Amino acid sequence: MRIDDIELVRGLPLFAEMDEQNFDALMHAAYLQQFPAQLQLLSEGDAADFVHVLIEGCVELFGTTQERETTLFIMHPLSTFILAAALKDQVYLMSARTLAKSRLLLIPSSDLRLAFERDAAFARSILLDLAGSSRGAVNALKGQKLRSSLERLANYLLSEFQIQDDDEAVELPVDKKTLASLLGMTPENLSRAFNNLAPYGVSVSGPRISIGKPEDLRQL
Predict the structure, then answer these.
(1) Residue 37 and residue 32: Cα distance in Å, rounded?
(2) Spans in the chain with pLDDT lower than 50
(3) Which of 71, 88, 123, 207 could covalently link to 181 via disulfide, CB atoms 3.0 to 4.6 Å apart?
(4) Largest distance between two CA atoms of the chain
């Protein structure tokens, strides 16, 4: 790992409070790797051999049953995923693939568990990370259960509007088929939902979504 990569990882909340010696030992066992788009990184049901830290790019976490598949989460930098499975030494509950060219840090799960036992500050950081993931999952579940498809799309657009900090529009970070799956919709329903948001100031031009009336969208 390059020095600037190590410094970047060191600055992540998960690792920022670690003892220097324990951090160095963990990084000695880890490695950075670059992956092309549309590459499956791990499969549901496999042993959780590594924790993944997304440094650059975009990763889709998805689940399958029989011949059905659904997007569960979209991960953006800088974020950690499949942490709980690695910590508990259990199988992955989701699969993961890159949606864009991505750079990831892979940390052997056995080394992570050893650092968790040795370093109290790191253990607290892991618990805070898991707590944040749990709350995010609950919010996503509530959205699926309590919001209509139109409201889910409006909420997603407002979230991206805030993240991207653009005064007029958002650029979709994923293709519309993946977005539809993430929101629990079919591509056809997603297209209709975009059309139904026109009175709220939403217009579509490829991946760029203009938001002319953000307050109206918030009211929805």
Answers:
(1) 16
(2) none
(3) 71
(4) 58
